[in-house]
Write a structure and sequence with these properties.
5 helices; about 20% strand; 6-stranded parallel beta sheet; 10 strands; Rossmann fold; alpha/beta
């Protein structure tokens, strides 16, 4: 029976590399896969899943109006050997789309592998991650480390000068130039200090 899997981590832990390897493993065994990535990510010429170690593969773009169930059902009419779909940046999913992914697994019997973050740069959960954590049948953490060498679980946003950012939109596409993975202790210390400085400046 096909299931929905959620692989989560902090930034720069190798989620995309793991996703591309999983897709390769299916295809090496003669099974087809479908890859999806958020349309909002326009860093490359086309919608691609790109790994920091240089691996990349074209993906189907999705936005908040994209219907996964309808798309996969249609693709199966032409490619019945699709056995797995893989979603990069799954934290951008909406609740309705997470529900559609369970329909894909249950009704179409196609495995669903989702890769994403748990929380944003302020420690607030993303909508997609919240429901994947609550509903996914298999949940796995992909580990990475903080600058202090402890396990990183949080995503700290920085500006072009490397200073901590504590205001702004929840969604900001970026890599090493925009985010640093932190353990909770370092995250709280650095983000809290910036927030306190802002409050003190406002009070003056």
């Amino acid at each position: 029976m096909a299931k929905v899997y959620f692989y989560y981590s902090a930034m720069n832990a190798g989620k995309s590399t793991t996703l591309l390897q999983a897709s390769y493993n299916y295809m090496e065994r003669g099974m087809q896969t479908l890859l999806f990535a958020p349309k909002i990510d326009q860093r490359f010429e086309n919608t691609v899943i790109y790994s920091r170690i240089g691996l990349k593969q074209t993906a189907v773009p999705f936005d908040e109006d994209f219907n996964f169930m309808s798309y996969v059902e249609h693709q199966l009419e032409h490619t019945p050997n699709i056995r797995c779909i893989l979603i990069d940046e799954a934290h951008f999913l909406k609740k309705k789309q997470v529900e559609e992914l369970f329909e894909v697994a249950t009704d179409l019997k196609v495995a669903v592998l989702c890769y994403g973050l748990r929380s944003d740069f302020l420690g607030e959960p993303f909508e997609g991650s919240r429901y994947l954590l609550a509903w996914a049948e298999e949940i796995t953490e992909i580990k990475t480390i903080c600058t202090c060498s402890k396990k990183a679980t949080m995503n700290m946003r920085i500006d072009k000068d490397g200073k901590v950012v504590t205001k702004g939109s929840q969604i900001q596409i970026g890599g090493n130039e925009s985010y640093i993975s932190k353990c909770m202790r370092c995250f709280r210390k650095e983000v809290f200090n910036v927030q306190q400085d802002i409050k003190m400046e406002s009070a003056l």
